[in-house]
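WARN  no MSA supplied for this record, continuing single-sequence
INFO  ligand: 6R9
INFO  echoing inputs
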Amino acid sequence: MKVEALPARAGVHQLHNYEEIAENFDWTEVEKEFSWYESGKVNMAHEAIDRHADSDRKNKVALYYKDQNRNESYTFYQMKRMTNRAANLLKENSTLEKGDRIFIFMPRSPELYFLMFGALKMGLIVGPLFEAFMEGAIYDRLDDSDAKSIITTPELLSRVPYDRLPKLETVFLVGEDVAEHEGHIDVLKHLPTSSDKFEIEWLDKEDGLVLHYTSGSTGKPKGVLHAQYAMVQQYQTGKWVLDFTETDIYWCTADPGWVTGTAYGVFSPWLNGVTTVILGGRFSPDGWYKAIEDFGVTIWYSAPTAFRMLMGAGDALVKEYDLSTLRHVLSVGEPLNPEVVRWGAQVFDKRIHDTWWMTETGAQTICNYPSMAIKPGSMGKPVPGLKVAIVDDQGNELPPNQMGNLAIEKGWPAMMRQIWNNPAKYESYFLKDKWYVSGDSAYMDEEGYFWFQGRVDDVIMTSGERVGPFEVESKLLEHPAIAEAGVIGKPDPVRGEIIKAFVALVDGYEPSEELIEDIRQFVKKGLAAHAAPREIEFKDKLPKTRSGKIMRRVLKAWELDLPTGDLSTMED
Ligand code: 6R9
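INFO  complex generated
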């Protein structure tokens, strides 16, 4: 697919000379922006909060928080005091020390962020968990990482199997009715009386920061460990990609259980001293548009599933809100369907800028920069200072337009530093001791733009034709009756594989043989005959991760009657 480049957006000051910067970029230039460049004393919480609290940004709002019951704001100075209180509370009520693992398992709230940064001030490694996790998922993560502590709520406590976790010493409980006893600490009781002065634990730039568990296509979830040094890339991409300026109001919709919710929910904006909005509670189209209007959001970072759900809620709803403050909209997590891009341009008058990265990369990697011409459907170009290439299975670089493994040259600032407890697994990601192999397949065009094709293990081979499930799903979504679509290859004795689509219908449509035929013809005409699904099955809902990715491996397991594997990241 060859699409004309769109013109660059006017008036943006960063990365106008992408080619030149990308050619010679040296990350030590960015290191100089941090106080540790001189002092050697590193701590994310200092750079993200205290540094601003001790500067002209002291009374600038760091956090706007809103949910059904609360609507609060905290300046950088207030964040410094609250995170100091949290750090003291954690320290005084446990044996926690630098490098110990503490998990956070609770719904979004200001306290979640006080405690997360309080833990970072103590030099702990923080493991964020989705609140939807059930007991098995909690057990696997805490057990694998020998966690010493967890922060949760009385409502979620029953899912923490502390009797089976001998290393788990302290449970911090955030809620109203807390039965405090040995090892169970009532956070809201102690927080107001804890000292608001705290001596930060100084770290080395290679010391641990966050531990995000993520599930692969097989096996148990693995713990991806990031170092403090990730802040260098998280900070700089905030400028280049998110286009942060001093007056922006930024909203990243991701939960901190997903890497996007830590790296770009709080780290990147706060490293840049930018005001951040956190919305609690569940997704609702009205609630989301209202948040943009109420807070005057200027930069909005979300995900394709969310955009698709907003699209499904209809254009009339958009018109009920004043979204005129929005100046930059971005997406991550899944391929951004051209249909969604067209819709965004139409209703927000903004092109949605796609960004590609993954838990393991720790920060944005391939992006559409605001100042660069974009090709809809392309993930964009590599972040300057990173070398990204398409390689074959032996690690040889492939020429433009050839599909292969999307790989990144080892050693970028935010690269994961370990798979917890599993060095062999960590090593297995690298080819020729040079390339980190992402597991995604893609190609690069002559102009250096990267095009996503699929997860390597999801690509379908049907009658000798290679079909990316994403392409078919995108086409299916354009059909008026289809709300969600997931496509897999189903083994077939004749064709190798056939394409099977699982679809959820828009309200008001009913499954029928005619509809199946209509959908098939729609894909045939719109895409290609060989890409039309031979089988179409209707579902009320498709299996998705908490971060919105359609779980094709679950569809495949259903289809083939195989065990579904680890489902801990699945939406409830
Ligand atoms: C940040 C995050 C990583 C996987 C990645 C890829 C998919 C992410 C994408 C995209 C197409 C994009 N992915 N961004 N696919 N276009 N712009 O999502 O991390 O949860 O680890 O997922 O998500 O398949 O390999 P993570």
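Residues 214, 259-260, 332-335, 354-359, 379, 438-440, 452, 455, 547 surround 6R9 (CB under 6 Å).
INFO  checksum written, moving to next record
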